[in-house]
Amino acid sequence: MTARINPSILTADFANLEHELDRIATADLVHVDIMDNHFVPNLTFGQRMVESLQRVSPLPLDVHLMIDDPDRWAPGYAEVGAFSVTFHAEAAADPVAIARRLRQIGARAGIAVKPGTDIRPYLELLPEFDQVLVMTVEPGFGGQSFMESTMPKLGLLREAVSASGLDVWLQVDGGITEQTITIAAEAGADTFVAGSSVYNVGEPASQIAALRAAAAA
Ligand code: DX5
Ligand code: ZN
């Protein structure tokens, strides 16, 4: 299984984002965290920022919406050119309708679950999605510790994806380091979001290479 490494720019220097994107050009996608200070107790940026990033990014944008009412707001992120748009199950009134709209616009559709959210009710919806994000920390902040207690969800997802024959990417986000990436890969993840371990430890390019190697080990 090929591991995808998606650095999160949440930990990057917001005043120099074009430069920060260039530093991660050897990654697979750029993870862009949208927070609204309602769904999570933190605030980042919105659709116009994604539109601007899209123009200068060497990599496709993987947008993670940590916002209320994705039914209303998610399609706008696809419209400005996000490669994938992932919204939270806990915040969505009609997840299938959102996913269909995202795909219709031309983006990959993703659904995310917080650490305490049961994944089982969503397994039957897998055909509607291109990726599933299992949060491995409580969403809202970078730099938190990986919660190994979330790993059984990946096992269930990997089993369901294999049984279905679908090509659904299984993503983890939060506390991913050279150590924890191995645990998540073994549990069934194939797409890894990493913020602090890419931007706060040495050079991003060598960190990306190290994470890739650890995921494959
Ligand atoms: C947290 C965000 C993450 C965050 C991960 O709510 O969704 O994408 O950037 O940061 P680290 O890798 O530092 O845990
Ligand atoms: Zn994220």
From TrEMBL:
Biological process annotations from GO: pentose catabolic process; pentose-phosphate shunt
Cofactor(s) required, per the database record: Zn(2+); Co(2+); Mn(2+); a divalent metal cation
CDD domains: RPE
Cofactor remark from the record: Binds 1 divalent metal cation per subunit.
Pfam family, one: Ribul_P_3_epim
GO molecular function: D-ribulose-phosphate 3-epimerase activity; metal ion binding
SUPFAM superfamilies membership: Ribulose-phoshate binding barrel
Binding site for substrate: 8, 64, 140-143, 173-175, 195-196
E.C. number: 5.1.3.1
First-tier enzyme category under EC: isomerase
Residues at the active site: 33, 173
Positions that bind a divalent metal cation: 31, 33, 64, 173
Cited Gene3D superfamilies: Aldolase class I (3.20.20.70)
GO cellular component, one term: cytoplasm
Record's keyword terms, sorted: Carbohydrate metabolism, Cobalt, Isomerase, Manganese, Metal-binding, Zinc
Catalytic activity: D-ribulose 5-phosphate = D-xylulose 5-phosphate
Pathway stated in the Swiss-Prot or TrEMBL entry: Carbohydrate degradation
Family, similarity comment: Belongs to the ribulose-phosphate 3-epimerase family.
Job description of the protein: Catalyzes the reversible epimerization of D-ribulose 5-phosphate to D-xylulose 5-phosphate.
UniProt-recorded name of the protein: Ribulose-phosphate 3-epimerase
Species per Swiss-Prot/TrEMBL record: Lacisediminihabitans changchengi
Gene (name only): rpe
